[in-house]
From TrEMBL:
<dbReference type="InterPro" id="IPR001765">
    <property type="entry name" value="Carbonic_anhydrase"/>
</dbReference>
<keyword id="KW-0862">Zinc</keyword>
<feature type="binding site">
    <location>
        <position position="37"/>
    </location>
    <ligand>
        <name>Zn(2+)</name>
    </ligand>
</feature>
<dbReference type="InterPro" id="IPR036874">
    <property type="entry name" value="Carbonic_anhydrase_sf"/>
</dbReference>
<feature type="binding site">
    <location>
        <position position="39"/>
    </location>
    <ligand>
        <name>Zn(2+)</name>
    </ligand>
</feature>
<feature type="binding site">
    <location>
        <position position="90"/>
    </location>
    <ligand>
        <name>Zn(2+)</name>
    </ligand>
</feature>
<feature type="binding site">
    <location>
        <position position="93"/>
    </location>
    <ligand>
        <name>Zn(2+)</name>
    </ligand>
</feature>
<comment type="similarity">
    <text>Belongs to the beta-class carbonic anhydrase family.</text>
</comment>
<dbReference type="Pfam" id="PF00484">
    <property type="entry name" value="Pro_CA"/>
</dbReference>
<dbReference type="GO" id="GO:0008270">
    <property type="term" value="F:zinc ion binding"/>
</dbReference>
<protein>
    <recommendedName>
        <fullName>carbonic anhydrase</fullName>
        <ecNumber>4.2.1.1</ecNumber>
    </recommendedName>
</protein>
<comment type="function">
    <text>Catalyzes the reversible hydration of carbon dioxide to form bicarbonate.</text>
</comment>
<dbReference type="GO" id="GO:0004089">
    <property type="term" value="F:carbonate dehydratase activity"/>
</dbReference>
<keyword id="KW-0479">Metal-binding</keyword>
């Protein structure tokens, strides 16, 4: 069963109640951006108090400062005026549960969904898979706080990021809903 009918029904209700939001400006009104994980338990609009039109939210697996995430952040300030950025990773992130070589091995075996067992992910699908996963940097996370520090530092030190933009580092706790600062990351990301 596809979720398609449910999504379209929800959208019809959303559009029926759209009101003044149709006249929102393109640049984010509160002039900030959040880079965070795609994890389904994280809702940046709720954990950071966003309404439509307030802020940019850039999401990927892990909330990592990949080349593409930085592409979005550069557009965010250069063309759309954001002035402060957050990097928000979280507890129990799936990116902590595998390494890049494991992922490539699972994809070598098959393109079916793997299963998470007591010793990590195992492939249960029928082949063939593909070796192309060996060419991807999966940006897995070995140390949660250090990953936030690393991502903030990568953004801070990027040639296209101005020193005036502060970059704050946080971990969202999926058991409490709280954002906990990674002080070392925020220090690395301080504006100058
Ligand atoms: Zn995650």
């Amino acid at each position: 069963m596809s979720v398609l009918p449910e999504v379209l029904a929800a959208n019809a209700a959303h559009a029926a109640d759209f009101g003044e939001r149709g006249s929102l400006a393109l640049p984010p009104a509160r002039r900030f951006a959040i880079l965070t994980c795609m994890d389904a338990r994280l809702d940046p609009a709720r954990y950071a108090g966003l309404a439509e039109g307030d802020a940019h939210v850039i999401r990927n697996a892990g909330g990592r400062a990949s080349d593409d995430a930085i592409r979005s952040l550069v557009i965010s300030y250069k063309l759309l005026g954001t002035q402060e950025w957050f990097v928000v990773h979280h507890t129990d992130c799936g990116m902590e549960y595998f390494r890049g070589d494991v992922m490539a091995g699972l994809l070598d075996a098959s393109l079916e969904t793997a299963e998470l067992g007591p010793n990590g992910f195992v492939d249960v699908g029928e082949g063939p898979g593909s070796p192309a996963g060996h060419d991807v940097d999966w940006l897995t996370i070995a140390d949660r706080e250090q990953a936030v520090v690393d991502d903030v530092a990568r953004i801070r030190n990027h040639d296209l990021v101005p020193a005036r933009i502060p970059v704050y580092g946080y971990v969202y706790h999926v058991t409490t809903g709280r954002l906990i600062e990674v002080a070392e990351a925020t220090a690395v990301g301080a504006a100058s």
